[in-house]
Structures are given as structure tokens and as C-alpha cells.
Amino acid sequence: MSIRTVTPKLERSQEESHFDRRSWLMLGLASAVLFYSLVMTFYVALLPGDGWVLHYDLTQPDPDIHFTNYYGSTPSPLQSGDALVAVEGKSVEQVVAAAYALRSPRPEQWKVGNTVAYTVERDGRELTLDVPIMRPPPQILWEYLTRQVNGRLILPMSLTMIVLGLVVFLQRPRYLPAQLLLLFSWSLAGSQLGFIPTSLAMLLDPFALFFIHTPLLFSVWQLTILPVIVHLLLVFPIIKLPLRRYSRLTLLALYLPAQLVPWFILVLNLGNPSAMITARDTWQLVQLLAAFIVMSWSVIHTFRTVQDATVRAQMRWVTFGVLFGFMGSVLGWTFTTLLGGSSILYTLFVLPMLLLPLSLAVAILRYRLFDIDFIIRRTLIYGAVSVLLALIFAGSVVALQTIFRSVTNLSSNVAVALSTLGIAALALPLRNRIQDVIDRRFYRQKYDAQKTFETFVTGLQTKTDLESLAAETRAVIQETLQPTNVKVWLVANETRALVEDEGEVIWLRSNDPILALMQHTRRIVEVNKLHLDSPTLRIMKIEAATLIAPLINQDKIIGFITLGSRRSEQGYSTDDYQLLTNLVMQAAPAFRVAELVREQRQEAQQREQLEQELQVARLVQQTLLPKETLELEGWTVKTHYQPARAIGGDFYDFIHLPDGRVSIIIGDVTDKGTPAALVMAMTRTLLREATKLYDRPGEILAAVNDSLVGDIPEKMFVTCFYAVLEPMTGKLVYANAGHNVPYWRTGGEVKELHARGMPLGLMPGMNYEEKEMVIGEQDMTLFYTDGLVEAHDVKRNMLGGGKVKEFLARHSPNTDIVTQLLNYQTDFVDPDLEQEDDTTLIVLQRRNIHVIHEDRALKINSQNEKRWTVVTSFQLPTASGNERIAMQNVEVAVKPLLSSSKLERLKTAVAEATMNALEHGNRNDKTKHVSVTVYKNAKQIAVHITDQGRVPIPEPSVPDLTAKLAGLQPPRGWGLFLIQNMVDEMNICSTDAGQTVELIVNLERNTQ
Amino acid sequence: MTMLTLRPSVRKRDGVAVIDLRGEIDAGAEAVLKDAYGEALATGADEILLNFADVKYINSTGVALLVGLLARARRDKRTLLACGLSDYYRELFTVTRLSDFVELYADETAVLQHIQQKARGEK
Predict the structure, then answer these.
(1) Distances from the Cα of A153 to the Cαs of A38, A145, A195, in angstroms?
(2) Which residues of B fall within a CB distance of 8 Å from A964?
(3) Chain B 101-120, CB below 8 Å of chain A: which residues?
(4) Is the CB of A978 inside 8 Å of chain B's CB atoms?
(5) Model-level pTM?
(6) What is the mean pLDDT of residues A932-953?
(7) Is residue A189 a contact partner of residue A34, using CB atoms and an 8 Å limit?
(8) How far apart are CA A746 and CA A106, in angstroms?
């Protein structure tokens, strides 16, 4: 079925393919006109006569009639060019006058088989010839229609018009313009078919003369053609004002003069051919002029007043038809009249005659076949170029032929063939070249559109930013199709308001019914054709969208692009549809990709924002945690803090009390993240304040609990273990507010530090049990939070306190328990799991090695030095390998006092200590030296090794051989450990002047 | 700066790569020890025996070198054995827990006997 561009203003008939009374009437009328034309044509063509076709001019006082072509089958005495002077003695003037007075001038002898005496003038002499009268065979009609130059096109053209008019009429039989077009095209076809060459027989037959004969004065079609076409233009594409308001009057003005005037002309000029012909021509001119004025006014008026794109597009076709068809036909008539019936020029103007009904047919049925502007311009320019090229071609062929002939002796045929081939070879690329240039020059817009489109499509893969992709798509559509507006509508993946306009993109809800419709349709649709109760569609209509092109990716609709009407108010052509279809097809995947990228980017942005917030919170929080670990003489305190998310609810604190005691606090706020951190900060402050006011851990926790109860959010609470340590004695007083029970390893046993108490912030007025214990030398206490014990392995087993306890029991006091514990935890947990909870550890170890920054840390110090005997004392310069000298010197000095094994051990200790002093203490600085003094008393031997460095000797720790073997730690770091293990006691004294290591070996009694 | 204090040599005996260590194991021994190990590895033997019979001195750096050697042997799936350690160095191995990872034998013969026994046992 064809697309019908029915504008509702024109006709609202639902059954436009059904005939009504007027349809039948119009069809009858048109058929009558056509039938009449055919009958008359046959009648005229088959009149008995001499078989000659005439050229004549009756407007002169002395009529000029001469014979031009002979169609007879038997030889005729007449010759082409013979001028008629008289028939059977009657002069031409008399004959013509009689004919134009409606009296038959036909002589009696004019019968088939007789001869009639013609007096003709040939080469200046008058001859009288007996011309036989014959009945032409029916095929003469065919000959007339085909052999004449102007006749060749008549038959196909007339048939085309008949078919065209009928097709349009059958498509829309109730539509007045279609009916008028039928009448017009059939009248025109009939008039063309009747346009057969004039013979003397016709001039002598009044019936033929007045109704069919070429002056066409009173022919029926003459009465219909012009009024009908004007009528048509007054009702199409829209009914013009005169017909709307004064329809009867206008119709009368249209048809009446055309019917009446010719009768007046006939009656008033009877018997006077010259006057009659002049009057006829004048009337014809007046009619044409009037028709032209009305038609032009109609076209211009429509263009100026109607904005409807469809109507305007239809008007373009009408204009095209009127301009080329009507004007061409008029020019054709004029030229024919001026230059004679068989002029070749007439042929050039016969063709345009077809254009008028053709373009009108297109306009009525469908206006979107071609881009009419394009065709008009192309026709004009290519026509000119083709003619020019043809001339150049012909000229070149002739020139080449001449050259060939003069240069060679080739026969002219060969020369023609060669030169034609040569020029053809040159002409084809030339033509293509010229066409290309013209395309670029004159159709720049189209050409550029194609280029723009291609560039856009090529670059699509690289466009991943949704906004810029949408912007570019819109720009490309703007540039190529020139709509008043372009919108990109995309399906939003998240729930949104009905329709959300974000500038470049309008977001739709995925359940919008229009999406289902477009998914089903899958092609470009006119918005007006959509019948759907959709708010989106209403918005589209408000936005003046006329076309909607679905974006379909992998069979799924992801949105669409809407276009407003064309800026030029011309409808979109099939080319435009094709371009748009290609564009959305190519752009859809790009839009999908861009959407995904956008989603990812948004997610990343959100994540980043959250991350940043947490980062800030973490920074704030970390400033609340102790910046340094607790430094206590005789104690090793290690902490570990690892929040699960950027900020956790864990906290710990060390508060130095004025009397030298230290508060050690560890706690955990339920929940994680920012709220937990805020509560944690508050709790920490409250604890610090309470510590100033109260002395005992139980009192402090009770006070903090009471403060927190009113202030923290419901369902949130804080567990807290509060201990006060007396570093000198190792006494620990503690209370627990529902926190994980710390472990205390003493000897080989691991105990738990229990104390009753509810978490902080749950209920007011709570009491907290207080307990007391003493941490002995080499004892270790572990405070921790949930994160440690609630870690899960692959099978979702919890690490649990029991395992931690076992782990603590297994490990020697001198090891780095924090690292090992964390390694143990890491080995346990499922590596795929995110750290579940914050982990905070505080390990409190009481050392047996006293590193004191005064020489009282040493057994032999400034106070008791006199009780010791110096065995030997020496200084060594700083040089690599000098530890050997120290070792040898000491060996010599103490050999008699020690067993070989003890000596070996002491030697190692001395060597290591000296090496440390040289390398780490003096840092290989050759200006410094190392002093070694060996003391003894009754029970012990002591060696002091003193450097001049300022680097404090670190605490010895047990190297983790497993970690070293696994490559987790460097293999080095054995020195201090060896020293510590080789002697009975090791003391370290760090002062500003230097570091002293004191090595003490007990003497064995039997050697004493 | 450091003198070449260790002169190891490598040989293969009954399927065991033996590194005879002569001299002192301290900072100066690093390169030669590494080379010797590489040589032992090249013999293709699964077991590498360190013969400490002629070692006069091992300091903490030496211990670190031995730890590094042991770590490498474990990565290369080789068993490291030791023999000829004096009582004192045996103690050093115990203190440093190196003895937990390296089987200690009195001398080369003891090592080979043990390996033969093990081989018989496997049969």
C-alpha cells in the first residue's frame, strides 16, 4: 500500500478508496472526453482525401497552403512544396471562406475513386493536376502518430497520462484533486491523440474543421483542459479562499467563459478565417495568461500562508509541474504556432507536457519520493552540462576526423570509428570528473552531509562519553537533515521521574509504553502516526517532534532519536530516511557502550566520593589514636590498629597519670564506618575527662557509661577494657565494660583477665568490677578487639579465643608477638574475604633486659665500679675486622677463668658486640674508636664495649627464622640475639657520649 | 675491603653434593658461598651437604648467609645437610633454630650411612 499523505484539513474520509456519486460522474465525464477524442480522431484521419499533409497559414489575406508530406500508397501527381491555388476552379480564398462560414466547400467530384482538379503553383508555374481521391487505410492513423517528428512522442505520452490519471483516481476516487487530475490528464491525452496533421480533406469538411481540426477552436478538450487545471490548483493541496467562500461563483467564473467565449468568436467571425483565427489566438492567450496568473497566485499564496510541512512538500511538486509542465507546454504551443507543426522544437516541449500531470500525481499520492529541490537543480545543471559536453564531444569528433583524414589515408569510416572511440575514452572520465565537481559545488549540502555522516560513523567507536556522543549525534543530524530540533532519548537503568531532561539526553523510564511500541516497530515512524496514550508521546508532540527513530542495540531498544520538522519546512525525503536509519543503526551500539561507561564512571565517582569522606574521617580518627606507642622503661608495648573499612569503631589510648602510672585503654564501638568513628571520638574524650576526675578504672567506666547513655544512638554501644599499670611494679588494676577478655601469659600458662561489667552506653547506673594482678618479668599481656578472634577461614570457622590462647602459649616471650599473631591470623582466614572487622592489638611485655639511659642500667656503674677488678682495657680504631682483635684480646685475658665452651660463647658475644659498635654505633667512622674493658669479681666476668655513636642500641628480639626462610624478612639481624644468648646477662646503657653493652658471664664454681 | 675468608670446594659423593667449607664464614664469604651453592645445584643432587669440619669461625653475618642459603635450598627443593660442626657451632645452630631446618651429622660418613639406610628403607 502506498503511504498516503492525507492532510486532515483536506479530507477526512475514512473510505477514500470507495466511489461516491461525484467519483462516478467525474469518471464518466473523463471517459466521455476521451471517447469523443478517439472517435473524432478516427473520423478525421479516415476522411477520403488526396493523402497529403499540408502546411498552411490562413491569417494572411492570401492564404498560403502547400503540400508537405505524402502518406498515400499509389503515386500522386502532386509534389512536396506545391502551393494550392484552386480546387476545381474555386480559388483557395473561396474554399477557406466557405469552410469558415460553415458551408461545405467540398466539390462534387470529391469521392473515392474520382479525381479532383487541383491548380497548384510549382517552381513559379501554375499547373492543373488531376489528383485521385482515396480512402486512407486505418493504419494511416498509426503513420500520423509515429512518422511525424512531433508525433513520435504523442502516443506513449498520451497513454502514460491516461494510466497516470486513472491510477491516481483509483487510489483516491473521492478526492476532488484526484478527480480533477483524471479529467485533466484524459483531456490532455485526448487532445494530443487528436493532434494529427492537417489535410485538405479536413479543411473541406466543416464538421471536422470546427470540432477537431487543428485550430482547436471549439474542441471539447479545449473547453476542459485549462479550467480544470486551474480548478485543480485552487483545491490542491488546500482549498483556496475563493473556492471556500464563493465556491459557486468561482466555479462559474472558471468554467463559463471557457464554454461561452468560443461560441461568440465563432458566430461573430463566420466566413472570415483570418479574423476568426486572430480572435481564437487572442482568446487562447488571454486564457493562458489568466490561468498562469491564477496558478502562480495559488502557488505563492500557499507558500506564504501554509506552514504545514506536508502541504509545502506537496506544493513543491505542484510548482515543479507548473513551472516545467505548464510553461513548457505553453512554450511548445507558441513555438509550434510560430515555426510550424513539424518543428523539431515542438518535440522538446511535448515532454514537459507530461510533467504537469506527473508531478501533480506525485503530489497527490505521495510527496516523499524524491528530494524535489535536488531534482530541479540537478535537472537544470546536468541538462546544461550534458548539452555542453555533447557539443564538445561532437566538435572533437569532427576535429579529430579532419585531422585523421588529412594525416593518414584511412577511409572515412575507420577515421570516424577511431576518432569516436578516442573521444569517448576521453569523454567518460571527463564527464565523471565534471559530475564530481558539480556534485561538490552545487550539492555541497548533500555532499557534505554524506561526508559528515561518514566521518561521524567512522569515529563512533572512540566516542565513549555519553554527553559528547549525544551532542555529536545531534549535531550530525542537525547538519545533515536540518530539522528544527533533535533530541536523544535514552532508557534510564535506574528508576527516574517520568521523563528527565539532562540537556543532551532525555532519560526515559524503562517501562514507558512507547518503548515497547518502538521495539515492535523497529523503524522510523512519524510521531503523528503513533496512537498511544503515553505522556512521553505528549511531551514529544509538545517538543514538536515529527519523526522518531528507534536506537536498537542487539535487538533491544535502548532509546530513540526524535527530529522536529525540517527547517526548510520541506518533508523528509527517502534519502533522509535512509540516512537517518543508517545513523541510528550505527549509533545505537555506541550509545550502549557510552551508557555503560557512564554507569561505571558514576559508580566510580560515588565510590571515590565515599572513599574521600572516609579518608577524611580516618585522618580525623587517627589523630585521636595515640601517635606513638607507649614508651615505658622495662616494658615493651606494641600496638596494631587495622580498621576494616576506611574507619572502624576500634580505639585504644594510653594516658600517663601524674604518679607515673599509665592508663591502657582498648575499646570497640558496635558498627563500623563514620557513625562508629564519631562515637569512638566521643567515648575517647569522655574517657580522658573521666580519667582526670576519677582514680579507679571501675569508677571511670561507670562515669563514662552514664555520660554515654543519653548521647549515643540507640542500638549502639561501646565495649571497653580499662587498665591502670604501675610500670615499676607491674601491678595492673583493671575493669571491663563488656570487652573481649585480655590474655595474660605468665610462665607457660595463659590466663584471662576477667572482670564483670556491661558495655558502655546501654543502661545508666552500671557498676564495674575491678580486679588487680601483677605482671611479672617476661610476662606478656594481650589486649585485642573482635577482629582478631572473629576472623573466619574458608569453611566459615571462627578463629576464636581458644586458638589465640594456644598460640600465645606456644610462643616464646622474646618474639615479636604482634607480627606473629597477625601472620597466624592471615594464614587462618579465607584470603577471598575482605577483612571482616577492625583489628586492634596491644601487647604489653615486661622485659627482663633493662635498657636504661643511665649507667645504673649497667651492673658495673660509676657507683660500684670499685668493687670490680679491671682485667684488661683497650681501645680499637674503627676498622672492619677489628672485632677479631677484641675477641682475641678478651680471650687472652679471661681464658684461665672460663671453660672452653663458655669462653667460646663469650668470644662470640664480644665479637658481635664489637662489630655492632664499629658498624652501627660508630658507623665505620675512622675517627671514632671502640673501648673494651674486662672486669671481674668473685662470681662474674663482665665486659663493657662502648662506642662513640649516638645510635641507641635496639632491644634484642628473636629473629623469626620461618619468616626469613620464607623470604618475608631479610636473613640478617642475628647480632644482638646471639649476644643475648651467649652470655648470662646483657645490659645496655645509652648515653649521649656513646652506647655501652655490658656482657656478664657467671663463673663456674669448680673453675673458681 | 673484606678479605676472602672462605674457600669452599664442591664435589659429589654417592649422589650427594658436598660443599667443603674451609675458613671463616663472615661477611667476606657471601659471594663464594653463593657460587659454591650454585655449583652444588648444578650437580643435580637432591641433597647438599655442608661440611663444616674446617670452619674456624662463624659470626652473625655468617649465620645470616647460612639462613639465606637455606632459604634458597628450600626454594630449589633441595635438602640441606650439615656435618663436622664443633660443639660450639652445634650450639649456635640450636640457638638460632637453624638445626630445626638442617639435619646435623657428626661427619660425612654418618651422612652417607644415613642416606643409604634411608634408601634401603625405601626399597
Answers:
(1) 17, 8, 12
(2) 67, 71
(3) 101
(4) yes
(5) 0.40
(6) 87
(7) yes
(8) 155
